[in-house]
Amino acid sequence: MNQAYKELQPYLERAMAFRTALILIEWDNETLAPVQAVSYTAKMAGAVSAAYQEMITGSELTTRLEACEQEEGLSEMEAAVIREVREEVDDLSCIPPAEYREYKELVSESGRIWAKAKADRDFLAFAPTLKKIIEFEKKFAAYRAKDGQKLYDVMLDHFEKGFHIEQLDQFFNQLKTELVPFLKQISECGTVIADEFLSGEYPEETQKKLASLTAKYLGFDFSKGVMAESAHPFTTALHNHDVRITTHYTDNISSALFSVIHEAGHAIYELGIADKLTLSFVGQGASMGMHESQSRFFENIVGRNDAFWVPLYERLQELFPEQLGNISREEFVAAINKVQPGRIRTEADELTYSLHVLVRYELEKMLIEEDLEVEKLPEIWADKYEEYLGIRPEHDAEGVLQDIHWAQGAFGYFPSYALGSAFGAQMYAHMKKNMDVEELLKKGELIKIREYLREHIHQYGKLRDSRQLIKDMTGEEFNPNYYVQYLKDKFRTLYQLSN
Amino acid sequence: MNQAYKELQPYLERAMAFRTALILIEWDNETLAPVQAVSYTAKMAGAVSAAYQEMITGSELTTRLEACEQEEGLSEMEAAVIREVREEVDDLSCIPPAEYREYKELVSESGRIWAKAKADRDFLAFAPTLKKIIEFEKKFAAYRAKDGQKLYDVMLDHFEKGFHIEQLDQFFNQLKTELVPFLKQISECGTVIADEFLSGEYPEETQKKLASLTAKYLGFDFSKGVMAESAHPFTTALHNHDVRITTHYTDNISSALFSVIHEAGHAIYELGIADKLTLSFVGQGASMGMHESQSRFFENIVGRNDAFWVPLYERLQELFPEQLGNISREEFVAAINKVQPGRIRTEADELTYSLHVLVRYELEKMLIEEDLEVEKLPEIWADKYEEYLGIRPEHDAEGVLQDIHWAQGAFGYFPSYALGSAFGAQMYAHMKKNMDVEELLKKGELIKIREYLREHIHQYGKLRDSRQLIKDMTGEEFNPNYYVQYLKDKFRTLYQLSN
Q: Of B34, B46, B50, which is closest to A225 when you measure between CB atoms?
């Protein structure tokens, strides 16, 4: 190990302990903590967060970081860690500590405010909080901006390096141009897919059993992971030996089932990161988009694939004999792929999903770059849903309040969902050249698919960025055509459309 | 607020955030974290713990603490906080960091060695480790000792201020003189109490329902608390708005039931602490003994009281119609109070419980003050059990290896269990002068009992020590006669003995 790098380690270790403690506090807050603890938890999180910031920006760490930056001949990992730490130092040193702490307390509390507003279907109860969050986000982005960078570009960079407004406008325009008319074509083609049987009396206990079995089948390792419940399913990783997923149970069997497959995809990514990266600054997934590529790969390309259900469907029928006993596998697979423009992103079918993201991308851009008034969000939201999906929300809970992201200050995150889907489609096209993916799914050999992804993507953690990983794996630059083509092929077949 | 005190606050806040984060990490570790996370969690906890110590012993905090100590006219709370922080500073700064680290490594390893020795029923496999722990404990107590204090007194002070060997010798001698012959009288009186029905097929799901109902009935506020499962039941409080209890379920209904009532007692204490103390250095229960007084008050004086079951027993029968449908309330209450000298402290009845503690007190004192050879423990343990309880352990696992406390270095902790029971009995005698406790229990008006305890004990947190609290509440000094009298009255009636 490089000597200067070695001397930096104790400070990184301490910083990482604070960061991991914060992740745990947040996990606990979302899944277990009693409601009345909120403001006190926020205070505690604020103090640990301030300690983290001081450690990162303090001269003990930064002088040693500078020493490392003078070094030559660093290993790939050493160089990557130094790059990540430098980014974190720059990110945090440009923000006045008092403001950072105030912000942290705000977003630690805002989740509950959002949840209550959502329960009450009352956006205006959340609007003042959202306004404050946006003000902080813009202020912080202005602190971080380099060479006249646009504020929203600064935010986007945080989640997906190298994907800016320019690239995303192009990407989303392609989706809009190709998919909105394609969706219309499907809606008007006359093919009717039955899916009523997915909703009904699906006992929660049996759903829990299914969730656990499915996670195990996909390769989620319960000796390194935990599954719990929360309002909005999510995955969090303390490190690659402690990865936690949540789900929620409804009267629609596909809701919990596919949220588990989705979160298990995130988890499998984190669990696949090489042990030498554990608790280091490159010991997490490469980016949000890369994370979504894995979760959506498992959810859609794997989980909604007919081949995936070949070895499993009878077992599913045994769990729910009354509900699915008379439904054939073909009917079930058609139902879980049914295109049905809806109001809720997390319940969207694979085709319309990225149109939900498109709405959010356009609104985020307006909020940050065009000073859109927060109070106007519900109406513009509804208008865009009508334009792209042909449907308006009936109230705020199924409109602008449906996602927690903005309540957490995660502006610039949403595009990752669509980018991730596109990354995954490109990986899938590449994998099919090297292995018979459908055949492996039919045989239940998930491990070969998982290992291939681990070898090319997971193990690297944050050592390489998403553009690089895609290029290294597939041999070409990111190309969204694969995604559009994949969707058109799949849904043309399902809906029996001509080319 | 005093100015010097005000300037100290940010440092206390940061320290408290670290301490609370550590409590959360430990809670998570005991109840949820995946098995393979252990060593990484320990690393994280170690780093946060080191940050806590540095904050407590650092000059930023200590110079401001010294300034406060020069101040006059501080409020009761300010003075109490400064007293507590001073103790913590002295505790953490008098031990050379290298020795402390060595000790921490030892006790983090010793739990595993103890557990293996217990599984193997082999005390000698644990003895060398225990010897090392005792050496450290004595060395540390010597560092902390003031004015020629005895080492065991230093340790006792840590758990229960003002209760030293002199007072405890007197206390435990009284228990020995009065209760050992009384127990013999009961064992020989010929009265037989049936309790087989407490064991059997008690479905876990129904037990969980009962646990939740019971906690609520006692006044455990789920909006400020959480109930979970763990190997051994415990209570932990992040602060008075986040108090967490655990239980475990066995085939004996009284096991989970009374562990819930016991832990709810701890929780009600923490939940009753005044809000102005939240997250301060006096925002916890006054002492281990005072804590046990509340948990054992609820468990025994309330929970094993016939009057408590008057409004509840039919509901219990409805939950377990097959198991308890034919058992009268009188039979049930007799069974949960049955005196049965055993080998395991945590399974002891109310009468013999403090005799288990007596054995441990006498042995601790010998280990610390009389240099008793560790190897001789099992034999002396067995002799004392025979003398006081009329029963010898058959192997080390049900003898000297049964408790984890010594493996964790917690010498001086055990007496709190018996002291707490005696505190509770004195409070009970006092309460009965002011209210008809049994009548309140019959009417289900738990709230009046809880409020009375809150008013006189809970709200004060660590503002006052246990001696002071007892004196303020009952109007007299701690007096163990109440405890002895309570036990004799109760069990004379149950076993139909003459006075």
A: B34
Q: Tell the residue number behind the tokens 């008050």, with chain if given.
A: B297
User: For the segment B427-437, what is each residue's pLDDT rounded down to a tens digit?
Assistant: 999 999 999 99
**In the Cβ-directed half-sphere of B282, how many Cα atoms lie within 13 Å?**
22
* Number of H-type helices and E-type strands within chain B: 22, 3
Judge whether B405 and B448 are in contact, CB under 8 Å. Answer: no
Q: What is the pLDDT of residues A251-265, one digit of tens each?
A: 999 999 999 999 999
B270 interfacial to chain A (CB closer than 8 Å): no
Provide the greatest CA pair distance for chain B: 69
Interchain proximity B13–A43, CB inside 8 Å:
yes
N-term to C-term CA, chain B: 57
Residue B231 pLDDT grade (very low, low, confident, very high; cuts 50, 70, 90): confident
Task: Report yes or no: B499 at the A interface, CB cutoff 8 Å.
Answer: no
Q: Which two tokens stand for residue A462?
A: 């944050």
CA distance A497 to chain B (A): 48
**CB contacts, 8 Å: A239 with chain B:** 37, 40
- Checking if the pLDDT of A227 tops 90, the result is yes
**Which strands form B225-229's sheet, in the order they lie side by side?**
B225-229, B242-247, B235-239
**Residue B263 annotated in active site:** yes
Looking at the complex, does the CB of residue B223 fall below 8 Å from at least one CB of chain A? Answer: yes
Half-sphere exposure of A295 (CA within 13 A, CB side): 27
Please, where are the H alpha helices in A188-237?
204-218
CB pair distance less than 8 Å for A14 and B50:
yes
Which domains does chain A show, CATH number per domain? 3-144 (no CATH), 165-494 (1.10.1370.30)
Percent residues over pLDDT 90 in chain A: 91
Is A47 close to B242, i.e. CB distance below 8 A? no
Contacts of A226 in chain B (CB under 8 A): 32-34
The structure's pTM equals 0.91
Q: Kindly report the number of other CB atoms within 10 A of residue B45's CB atom.
A: 19
Q: How far apart are CA B381 and CA B289, in angstroms?
A: 23
The vertex-A174 CA angle with A482 and A355, nearest 5°, equals: 95
Summarised one tens digit per residue, pLDDT across range B81-122 is: 999 999 999 999 999 888 988 898 888 788 889 999 999 999
DSSP bridge pairs for A239: A242
- CA dihedral of B143, B149, B150, B155, whole degrees rounded to 10: -60
How many helices (H) does chain A have, and how many strands (E)? 22, 3
Express each pLDDT in B375-405 by its tens digit.
999 999 999 999 999 999 999 999 999 999 9
DSSP-derived 3-state class of residue A408: helix
